[in-house]
Amino acid sequence: MSGSLTVLVLASIATLVYHYLGYPAVLWILAKVAPRPTKTGSGQPRVSMLVAAYNEAAVIEDKLNNALDLDYPHLDIIVVSDGSTDGTEAIARRFEDRGVVVVEVSPRQGKGNALNRGAEQARGEILLVSDANAMVARDALTHLVRHFDDPSVGCVSGHVAPEPARDGSDISGSEGLYWRYEAFLKRAESRIASTTGVVGSLLALRRELFAPIPAGLINDDSFLMLHIMRQGFRVLYEPTAHCWRRSSRTMQDELRRRKRITSGRYQHMMRFSEWPWNSPFTVFFLFSHKYLRLLLPFFMIAALLGNLTVLFFSPVSWLMLLTLTGQAAFYALAAVGAILSRTPNRRWRPATLAYYITVGNLGLAYGFLQHVRGRHTVLWQKAAR
């Protein structure tokens, strides 16, 4: 039994190392030896921005002022208030005399339905999906739309960075490290074929490629990405198209966000017929980047419990002692990060990163439980801002 458990422990650790370190190394090599450049241009097609908002009274005015200040000549703005009860719609209607279109949905039906309603009103050649709490850089649209001069490009995702809370009571430090790691992966994937990491905070796509988001699907951005890939178009990441969104104020908020996203990702993973099988590279990216990540909590559990079992029931193995020491050091760092997270403006990067990774994987585990219990919902619960 000890031999089988040793193999399980080593295989689990190898999988974790592959996901966090090996896959980025493979991408780096592929991006060097097999790049597929795309053409960019200076065209300025009409863009319709879609903002799905639920109880966003605290940020919707800033969002619309930000959108109206963008340095782009042909921009329509459509706000869909999805059953808001805090005055979001009334605030948005103050901007109607400046060309903003406001659509009210009642009762609340979720972001996917809100985007469908907004797309029905859109007249632009390009749709731009942007969250209400995401503030966009003035030149972001120019950087995004230049890729659509290439007919092979169907969708472009921008770069999202966390905006720290004014009182320092957020997790932007560790979240920033995560986004930089993600940015490397997305940039490399884009150079080879298509990125599998798009964000609903800043996502541009050709209007003719938009498909109504089915009821019950949580991750609307992933649905659109996969739909466009299956049509044979590339999905790119543009690192110079910036936007900022407020970080989760607490790890509890981050855990809730991760749980919901994970449940939605399981939905997509199980819909095998909707994987982009026409692009082998993209399927490899999708599995290694997104779907393998869903299994990481189980590999972490297997590595730890298997390691303890081998050492408890079998003769002492220096290899197993070494792997257990490494795991213990990681979780000790995470515990220190948890303590520091309770004190504003006190961070130690290694500990905070270990804590963020641990909480992220807890979110993945909870998301799995939520999915198998059928408790996923398209109605999102906003984090405190």
TrEMBL record:
InterPro entries in the record: Glyco_trans_2-like, Nucleotide-diphossugar_trans
Family to which this protein belongs: Belongs to the glycosyltransferase 2 family.
Name of this chain's protein: Glycosyltransferase, catalytic subunit of cellulose synthase and poly-beta-1,6-N-acetylglucosamine synthase
Pfam families: Glycos_transf_2
Record field: transmembrane: 6-30, 294-313, 319-340, 352-369
Keywords, comma-separated and alphabetical: Glycosyltransferase, Membrane, Transferase, Transmembrane, Transmembrane helix
Any one GO molecular function term: glycosyltransferase activity
Superkingdom of the organism of origin: Bacteria
Start and end residues of each Glycosyltransferase 2-like domain: 48-210
SUPFAM superfamilies attached to this UniProt entry: Nucleotide-diphospho-sugar transferases
